[in-house]
Fold this sequence. Notes:
By secondary structure, this protein is of the alpha/beta class. The chain has eleven helices and eleven strands. Helix 6 crosses helix 7 (190-200) and helix 6 crosses helix 11.
Amino acid sequence: MIQIALDAMGGDNAPQSEVHGAVLAAQELQIGITLVGDSKQIKQELKKHPTEGLSIDIIHASQVISMRESVAVALRKKKDSSIRVATHLVREGQVSGIVSAGNTGASLATAKLMLGVLDTVDRPALAALLPTAKERPALLLDVGANVDCKANQLFQFAVMGESFARLILGISHPRVGLLSIGEEEIKGNELTKEVFRLLQNAPLNFIGNIEGRDVFKGEMDVIVCDGFIGNVALKVSEGLSEMVTNLLKKDLSTYLSSQIGALLSRRAFQDFMTRVDYAEYGGAPLLGVKGAVIICHGHSTPKAIKNAIRVAVDFCINRVNERIEKEINIHSS
């Protein structure tokens, strides 16, 4: 049975959302969950849910790294934090992967420090799934793990993203695009131009440059950029989604007059909400480290936690890290 560690204290609504999500995952996926954090609080939350027959255990951690804490200070002073204890379990082989909705910087730093990077990878990349106009989402990476990158590192991001899209998303021949300021090969800065040449000569399904306005069209399966651009793009997308959702809610309540119209519009609105709901995708995988590491939104719901655990399980079952190492070796030779 696959065992996944869950940082039960990291999120904004911890440990309530984490414990509830863990119970849902254990019920649906038939896997083992190790909840890491304040054992007293975790046990109190577990009493609220039916857990008979489920493989859920608890490992106590006395400290929590808050969202606002300095990562460097927290890692140095909080040796018994929930994220550090959970990551230690992965390093020791007691669990196969980890899920956390806690401090993203701390999660990234802890994973790199305690697990290390794959031998063939220069730097790990944080990948995020974005909704598109088509039926399937697009994978954007890097979205924050690396602010400054070299061309070869972005090339590796493309290989890792292509592997993830094929193995986890089930896309047989993922289309890879490079985020730039124009579709033409000559557009972009020196970094994107160099990356374009590397990808053009690689045995990938590289389509070319993609502009920001085309990210959500669904014409690309994997979109590559550095962590600075990716994080800005992700945060702008989240803000736009929130604004559109709030405007739709306001307009629907203001202008709908008939029950039939309200019913039809409500159904369309619910479909829209499902398409843009981050909880459907769970969390962002940290590709390139020695272990399955999934990082979630701080305000993740139980549904989001459950789906993040599902991604971690799929990551382990499909042996993504082994495939990434093998394919980077092939593409780099």
